Amino acid sequence: MIEGPYFVLAVVGVVGTGLVAGAFCAFSAFVMRALAALPPSQGVAAMNSINVFAVRPAFMIVFTGSAVVCVVIAVVTLVVWPDEGAVELLVGSALYLFDVFGLTLVANVPRNNALARLDPGAREAAAYWPTYVREWSVWNHVRTVASAAATVAYVLALT
Fold first, then answer.
1. Which are the contacts of 111, defined by CB distance < 8 A and separation ≥ 6?
2. pTM above 0.90, yes or no
3. Coil, strand or helix: which one is 81?
4. Residue 9: how many CB atoms within 10 A of its CB?
5. How far apart are CA 60 and CA 74, in angstroms?
């Protein structure tokens, strides 16, 4: 079993990646479906508001803090290579850093930025909204599974 600083890092990794998985799961399970059911102008306005509040400290500390923890776990694991859990720690870190954090930057954020540039009541917004919901949701499903898998990998490292 992992002990000492590795144990603490892995537990913090479990909590952080698990919280992010839960937030993304909520969007995949019902938030995006509820927004898609609204008239496009309302859905666009609501999602733009969500995106403004998502970059506030409450979520960003967990989201980016988890990425920092994952980097620390990966670096420490590569340098020290513990007797147990090394592979699981590296897998958990890679899943979160590439398939959650990285994917957010290259897939979800650009779509959010494009949506933010549109006037919710404009024809362009109504035309883009179904595409946005479909594409953003697909990438969010991937982030949900990846963050949950990272959580599982860190839990396995603890056992």
1. 132, 135, 136, 139
2. yes
3. coil
4. 20
5. 21
